[in-house]
Each structure stands twice: as C-alpha cells, then as structure tokens.
Amino acid sequence: MTPGYSVVRDASSVGTDRAGLTRRVFAQLIAAGAVTSALPAASAQPPGAHKENTMLEGSRSFVYVGARTTKERNARGDGLNVYAMDNATGAWSHVQLLGDLVNPSFLAFDRTHRFLYTVHGDLSDITAMAIDPANGKLSVINRQSTEGKNPVHLAIDPGNRFVVVANHITSTLALLPRRDDGSLGAVIDLVKLEGKIGPHRVEQPFAKPHQVEFDPSGAFIVVPDKGLDLVFTYRIDAASGKLVQAAKPVPAREGAGPRHVAFHPGGRLAYVVNELDSTVTAYHFDPATGALAPFQIVSAVPDAFTGNSRAAEIAVSADGRFVYASNRGDDSIATFAVDASSGRLSAVDWTASGGKTPRFFALNPSGRFLFAANEDSDTAVLFSRNPDNGRIARTEQTVKVGSPVCILIRPSA
Fewest CB within a 10 Å sphere: which of 112, 163, 202, 401? Predict the structure, then answer.
C-alpha cells in the first residue's frame, strides 16, 4: 500500500531560506581519486564564523526513507520509500516503493548524488542503486556482502572510489570499491575493532561500531563505538585499498555508549551523541592528525525528565551555530547553541518529536525544515526551523511510513 501523507496548510512560521547540504556535507571535497592522511591548511576563522551559502534551491527535492521491515524487529516498514518534496512548503508526495528490500536501515549518496546505497540491518549486505534525476526513482544495480553482521552505517569517500561500512555485531569496518557506474565490488579490507568493553551488561558485550563519518575535509573517518566507549579515527590508504588507524582512540565516559558524530563546518569541532547515558560530548578535532580531545559533556535530555531514554541522532546546522540531538524515551529533539569562540554547547530548548522513538532526524538542504523519523509511531514529522535562534516548531505535516529509521534528502540540481 502506498504510504499516506498530508500537506502543510500553514507554512507562515517557516524561517528565512538558507542553503546548505545535509549535515554531513560542510566543506570542499578533496581532489577526486585521492584520499590521504594530510589535510589542507585549516581555516583561521573561529568556530561559528562560517557563513551559509545563500544560493536559492530549486522547487523540489527527492526524499529517501529507509525502514525496518522484519518481524524480529517488530517492524511495520515495507521497504525503501521515495518522495518528492516541495521545497517551499516541505510537503511530500509519494513517488516509489522498493518493497523487496529487507531492512534498508541506513542510506548514503555517492558524491555526485547520482547513486544511492543502503545497508541491510541485521543482515550482511549493501545494495547499490541508480537515481533517475528527473523523478527520483531508484533502480537496483547490484548487491555485495559486507562480510559482517548487522551493517548499521556507511559512507562514501570524497574521491568517490570507496564505501566504508560499520558492521555493528561483528565489530568490524569494511571497505568496498565503488565503480564509475555506481556498482560495488567485493570487500577489499576488513578491520576488527578491539578494546576493553564498557560496563553495561546487555548493551556492551563486545565492540560495536555504530557509525563511519568523514570529517569535513574527507581525510579522516571518525568511528563512535558503543560497546567499547571509544571513538576511533581511521583514514583510507587509497594506494593499498586499506583502512589505517590514524590516531589513538579517545575514551568516552564509562557506560556512555558513543553512537553518532557530527562535525562543525569549521573542521575543528566534533560533537558525539552518547546513546546509553543520553549525553553529548564536544571534542576539539585536530585536522592534521585526526585526533579528538573532549572538552565538554552535556545532557541530551532536560533535567526534568526522570525516565529512561536513549539518545540516537545528532546534527550540526550548516552555519555551525546550532547542534541538534534526538532522544528515544523522552521522545524529543534537543537544540543547543554553539558558542562562537569556544565551541561549547548551551541548551536552547527541547521539542517533542511528534511521535514515539525518534531514531533519526534530518535537516533539509536549505536548513528551513527538520524531519523527525519516529520509528515506533510510524511517522515522519515536519518541523519548521528558525535559522536565527535555532528553534524548531512542529507543522501540520505528518507522513505515514512504517518503522522509519533513516531520511536522506537529495538536493535540487
């Protein structure tokens, strides 16, 4: 059945249009075809001094929603759904359902936005798809093994030559070659993460890499590990096709469970959301070595919340002025302001996610909207975003989609 959707009837509260890509694209890509451990000279501007690109976006974008689909996950998803989004109102209209994909749980574009890749949660596979630029529809190219269990995250290097995957249950990082036609080759490197496990008797039985995220320059890959309470840094040796540890892993607070990282566009700050203790840790990032140094930790939930909650997703606004984090249990999106001189966070507000278990959320390319994927209430809820104070406000649009766990927005041409 085609998922239903409703249209925004009042968009008057939407803030001024600001352009920018998704939270993971903040800086110039390094030269195509080369991935090295060296970075260009870092910008001298202080954190928060980055100015957003004010170029207008087109009339519509395409939205891709991954979901859980299996009974083992108590899921109600039906596959990978494609929507067309009106960039003026944020309204979605359904375009396509790929119903034969099992647990397409995390998605990533290649660097040209011509191809889309998904890992299959709880399985051991990754699928490559071509995107029709006219209508956003997907067609499957090929599928490859990740040589591990439960791939939970993936990222494409700036040279567009490799795909890195985090295998959550088998504690490994996989490296696959990406071809010009969008297809994937077999795994060429597999690295096992090791260390002392955390104290949580259920959630930390072994190393659990949860994300592979390139820094803004594309030279380093930061890997939060929920099982070891460590954050690793790797790089790709393009000549040998190997993943190489670039810096000593930095410990998180015991039992924190680092889950996801988001970089400040200035390239010298990183923010990690810790799942198990619902906190956010701020780090200084060394763009020459990839080393991380923590300098602040804040609660991701309000002090009045006394129940159980697990933090999930984190994002930095394209201008570097605000950080957002989602909470499953409190069912909220936290907004933090970033101090322009120090990078320290201060709480601005907590906003109800409009459903249960906001496993994921995404800012649209202009930064005008935030979409919350509420996994356990089967909804993607639209929020307007004020770019001046960072606050988000729920609109009347709610898209019905089973067990959503990832939202990816393809910028307009």
Answer: 202
